[in-house]
Every structure is written in C-alpha cells, then in structure tokens.
From TrEMBL:
Pfam families tied to this protein: Anoct_dimer (PF16178), Anoctamin (PF04547)
Membrane topology: Multi-pass membrane protein
Record's protein name: Anoctamin
Keyword Membrane: yes
Localisation per UniProt entry: Cell membrane; Membrane
GO MF assignments: chloride channel activity; protein dimerization activity
Annotated transmembrane regions: 269-296, 347-367, 432-460, 480-501, 649-672, 809-830
Anoctamin dimerisation domain location: 38-255
Listed GO CC annotations: plasma membrane
Amino acid sequence: AIKGVGHGGKVLFLSSRPGQRGADERGNLRTGHKDSVFFRDGLRRIDFVLSYVDDKDGERKQERRKVYEANLVKVGLELETEDKIESEDGKTYFVKIHAPWEVLATYADVLKIKVPFKVNDIPDNSEMPMNWLSTPFRLPEHIMQPEPDYFTAPFDKSKADFFLIDNKDTFFPPSTRNRIVFYILSRCSYIREDCGDRDKKGIKRLLNNGTYTAAFPLHDSRYWTRSRDVNCDSERYNLYKHWARFFCFFKEQPLNLIRKYYGEKIGIYFAWLGFYTEMLLFAAVVGTICFVYGFLTYDDNQWSKEICSEEIGGSIVMCPLCDKKCGYWKLNTTCNSSWQSHLFDNVATVFFAIFMGIWVTLFLEFWKRRQARLEYEWDLVDFEEEQQQLQLRPEYETKCTNRKLNRITQEMEPYLPITSKCARSCLSGATVLLWISLIIACIIGVIAYRLAVYAAFASIMKDNPTTQLEVVGPYITPQLATSVTASCINFIIIMILNLMYERVAVWITDMEIPKTHLEYENKLTVKMFLFQFVNYYSSCFYVAFFKGKFVGYPGNYAYMFGSKLRNEECDPGGCLIELTTQLVIVMTGKQVWGNIQEALLPWMRNWWGSRRARSHPESLYSRWEQDHDLQAFGQLGLFYEYLEMVIQFGFITLFVASFPLAPLLALINNIIEVRVDSWKLTTQFRRPVAAKAHSIGAWEEILNGMAVLSVVTNAFIVAFTSDMIPRLVYMYAYQPQGEMNMEGYINNSLSVFNISEIPAENRPDDEENPSWFNSSITSCRYRDYRYPSGHERQYSHTMQFWHILAAKLAFIIIMEHVVFLVKFFVAWMIPDVPSDVRARVKRERYLVQEYLHNYEVEKLKIQLSKQNNEECTCTPMIYPSLSKHEVLSECL
C-alpha cells in the first residue's frame, strides 16, 4: 500500500496491492509527479526524503519505522510513501515529508529564526569609483541578490501578523524548511512511549542501524536544466551556470544565492575561501617579484662562482659525509645546488618574510570586517547565543541521564557530571598524545632512511660524484637524490596516516559527548589540526631547524640515538634548498592529489551508482531517486575543506621564507579549488541540510595562532637555515678594510681538518675514495667555524662563530619586534566591524523595539475598543504585513 498523510494530519491509505496497478495508472504516476519536488497533489512541497529497503532483519526495522513515522505524524508532519515497485531498482521505498505552516511556525519560534518585518530603508552607499572596471567580473543582479534587503527579527508565532507574510507556502525558503524538518527528525523517538528507553531517538541512530538507508532534502531541479515546474526557482541550475563551471573562475561568487540554497554554514565557507584567494593574489605578486630578483641577480652570486670554479671549488677537498661508505669529494660537485639556492636565498628573502608577517595580519583583520558584514546581512549577529542554548546535540540528550536546571532558560536539561567529563577528557588527551608520538616515530624512521640511503647513494656515485639525467638536465648529487626520495616517501606516509587519524579523531570526540554541534566541531577541529600539523610540518621543521645543526666535526661526529648512522650535514649550498624541495613536494603533492580525489571519486561513484537509471528515459527518473543516487554530503564534509585550506595556509606562512613562490602555487590551486568544491557540491552531492554558522569557528583561532608562529619560524629560517647572516657578517666584519664584496667567503666559511686524525672507524674504505684522491692530500674541509689542528684551541669554535651567532640572535629579536609592532598597530588601526554595519545593527535593533512596542500598543487599543464598542483607530503602518482592508478587518 502507498501510505500518505492528507491535510489536517489524517492518515490516508491508497490501497492497491503491488502488481495489480494498471500500466496506465503507473504511467500517469510516473509522468505526473516523478520529476517534481511536490507531493502527488502538486501543492505540498517535499521538505525531506527518507529511503529504506526490506532486508533479513525486516520485522524489527519495520516496527521502528512504523513507530517513528507515527511520531512524526503526531508532531504535525505530513508523509507520503513511494512503493518500491515505483523505484528504478525495485526494492527501495521513499518516504516524502512535508512540513505544514503550523509546524514551520512553531519550530521557527522555538529556533528563533529571523524573518523580515520591514524593508531596509538605509541607502546603500557601497558603490566604488571607477566601478565599471569590475564589470567583466560581475554576475547578473538577480543572481547576486536573489532576495530584497529587509530588517529582520526572531519569529514569534503569536505575533505572526507583525511580519511580512505574503504567502505562507513560500514565506520560509526551502533551506529553512529542511533545517526545521531535520531538527524534528533528530529528536523524534522510534520506540513506543511505554518502553521508557529515552536513548532510542533520532534519524542519525536510525541511519546507523540500517533502519533507513538515507535521509536528505531534495535539490530543486537538475543542475544542467531548469525545472519544468513553474513553482520552482531552479536555484541549483543557476548555481551551476553562474558558479560551478570552471570557465566562471574569474567571476565573483553569488554568495547570497549560495547562502539561500545551502544555508549560512556553507555560504560562510565559500566567502572565506574566496576572500583568502583574493588576498593570496597580493602575496603571490610580491613573492614572484622576489623570485625574479633572485633570478636577475644570478650572475652577481660570488660565492656560487667560487664553488663552481676549478681554481677554488675544484681544489677544495671536502671531508666524507658519512662513515666507511662515503669518500672524499670536491666542493665544485655542489655547483648546481648552490646556484639553485640563490634563487630563494637572497636579500629579497628577508623582505618577503617581513612582508608575509604583515600580510597575514591584514588578511585576518580584513576578514573580520568581511565576516562582520556577512553576519549582519545574513542575520547571524546574535546567533552564537542561540546555538549554545537551544540546539543541543541529540547524542548529548540521549547519553546524559542526569538533569539540572539551566539558569538561563530556567528549564531542566541533561548534563554530564564533572567526574565523567574529566575522565573522558584525560582519555582523549592520552589518545591524542599517543597518535602524535606515532607520527614523530614515523618521521624519525624517515630520518633514519635519509641517513642510511645517503651512504648508499654516495657509494654508487663514488666514481662519478654527479650523475647527469639526459631528460631533466641538472646534475643529481647524493644529497639531492636522498632529499627527493625521502620527501616522496614522507608524503606517502602522510597520506596513509591521514586515513587513520580521521577515524581516531572522530571516535575520541564522540567519546567526549560534546554538548552542542558547535562544541563538537570545535573539539574535532583542534584534534584533527594537531594531528595534521605534526603530520605535515614535522619533516619541514626537521630540515629547517635540526638538520646540520648537531653534526659535530671530523673525529667527533654526533650519531642518531647512539646508532652507527651519523647525523646529516647541510652541503655548502646550505639546507635552504632542501627545505624548498621538501616544501614543494609535500605542498604540491597534497594539493594535486586533493583536487583529483575531490573531483574524480564522487563522479566515479555516482556514475556507477546510477548505471541502472541511464537505461531509462529521464521522465521516469524521479527527483528523489536522482538525489538518492548522489553522494551524501556528511556532517564533516565542510570540516575537511577547511582543514585542507588551513594546512595550505601553514605552508605559505610558516616556511614561506624558503620558497617565495608558495603563495603563487596556493593561488593557482585555490582558483581551481573554488570551482572544484562548487562543482562537486552542486552536481555530485545530495543537497546538504541547511545549517547556521556566524563565523568559521575554531579555525579563526588556529589561523591567528599560525600567524604569530609564522613570524617566529621565518625569523629562524632566515637566521639559521639561510646563509644570509654569515654572509653579511663576513662582508661587514671580516673583509679587508674598504672592500664590500663576497670574495673569499667560501674559503672563510670552511674549516680545515687533518686527515690523519680521523679515527679508523670513521675513515672511508679505500675502494670508496674517488680516483683523484691520493696520499699527497693531507687535509680536508668541512662546513663550520673551528680552529685548525695545531692551534692552542684546536677544533673549538672561532670568534667568528660567536659573532655570527650573536648576529643571528639579534636579527631574530629585531625582526620579531618590528613585525609584531606593525601587526599590533595594523590590528589596532583596522576596526573589526565596519562603521556602516555597526550603524545598521543599531538601527535594526531600534526598529525591532519600536515596532514591537507600537504593535503591542495597537493590540491593546483594539482590545479596549472591542470592550467599549468604540471606533477602531488602527493604522496600516503598525501592521506592515497587512493591507488597509485587512487592518480594518482586524480592528472590527
């Protein structure tokens, strides 16, 4: 039987057994209502759809569904069921849900949903001079502003005539309707009241135990064509046409339409992503200029000329870089890495590091202003308090058996005892530390790989220290080969560990039983970010701040945890080029793989899932079946999008001093990312349940923390990873008087060690030494500032070492103070809320109070007039939603 709920909440049964319905009737059903977002009567809109199939455990699930749907009917929802014989696979039932006006009005009052009560009368002065320049980037006005601008107030069912209600069927937009229905579905029980088990309620639990297979609101049309129903706005089609196609990459985003269709939470994400991409343009331009400067000053690189020359670099014999398997080598074998390092290690690096410290402050401050404007325009100014007080998670309500009085609402509500909360938090913290330790262990394993493989590469290349690739062109040294392979392996480990972290983070967050959805997302955000931070950045931190810093010197080398693996050294070109290599591989690999995965996997799954429907005419493919075959946009779908962008933000801020082109790569990726995210959301996923969010949540605090940390990391990269400070100290303090050049710097930066003093266990095997090495060579050089053999303080640090160290520390202090002072000054100068938005918020609050006051006064006058049989003196201005005739009728 096809079960439905008619008007007035009465249950109707259309009794006809499967198989007995005639072909004509079935054809009429298919063509009459299949590709529609309305019930069979063509009047009641489908606000939500549930699907299920019969299986072996059918009786228990059938009982749950029967009780659950009956309880939905009790709260006023109207249901209509599509039999499985009407579905393409012949086994799926679809329960269509409609929320009538009484239900919508009741829960809009409960949720304090803001609705319009007066047209905005503040003139819009946002027109900019020379606005015609932005014409190619604009979208049509009806797409950018799908609704007029109103003053709004929280809906009050008892004062419905106070609001601008022209048509009750369209007063609440579909996104608000599906949000209200989902709120009801999440709190409706699926067992009889006499059972007394309070834990058995909510659509989420029914989906988890297989009672229902899916629950989703409907898209309003196909994405490639408008709906044939004149009552549908076809907003999905407009979003695809003007937003989701890649060739719209240079166009502005229709944020108001996104918000109207998907809700504020998704709208605020795309607003942030678009603003971040716009700000990246400035960083990319400056970073590219700094890179071009390094390229133009290529020929002025005196130290690279000395390394590459046969007279200097070709005559300097360097000490072995590992024990036994590494032989002596000449300095000029690092010629190419030295030239490449200059592209990123030059004077412009210091300027760019300071610029990015200021840029990130401007980005965050301007975003606060943009966010404040959106909060007002999207009626989110007072949303946080509502979120905290009213919308408890169903899981929290069911798992917390204790009750206490809420001092704000003066109602009894569930709560988690402090002892249980502490125990759960301690277990959660211990789990987080355990998994972070696992990440660090993996990084140590990669470091051990680097040490072991370097010896192997050095042994392979002992006869020809450089191997030329005919296709690529540049020379490959053991250092470069080790760095590239280790970075690739590290990237693979990162991708594997990510799959495990997601499940662990969700599990421990569920275990903590957060009170609200906002608290749940914030807790999950912190845990996932800690995992990802250590996972993605630990290898970069190692190369930037640890590699080559604790090596020792020939005869007294430092070893990794007492093993036979000697700590890595930086080659004479410095560790900066290795940090650049690590950054490029991990950052670029993550972005490319992420975009391929986001676009390709949903498309392939949908293509496979809808294979049966492709053999039928489109007119027989119902709207609910089309959406059922799409991928579900999970509760954490948006969370992973934020996480991906925040990790990218870390790459372009924490280590940008080593790679000025990082913002350019991020800009290119984000231009693609906006369209990939919009395309998959519009075409490959079911319509998400609309949700409110007044900001980007915990991500904002994380971005602020990373902005502060980036100043410190870039200062340390310039000071300790780059060779900028040693060169400046040499130029200004150790050059002959009057000469301001870098001649002799390489010879000055290398110390001398007596080969005869190298212990036997550290000396290279005879077969490992190159053919040019002979007994006449008595000393080798290494990268450090130490006294030579025979000096009274032999092999201890020279005074130049301490001068350089003092200069590095002074540079860090000066750079940090300058950047932080500028950051705080800029943050102080730029108010978080624009003045016009502040004025609009005050005016709206004033109007709400004034109109409500007048409304109550007129109500009182009407009552007194009725009591005294006096003539009514109502004015239409007091009832903005009523006509003059309706006002007079109300008075009478």
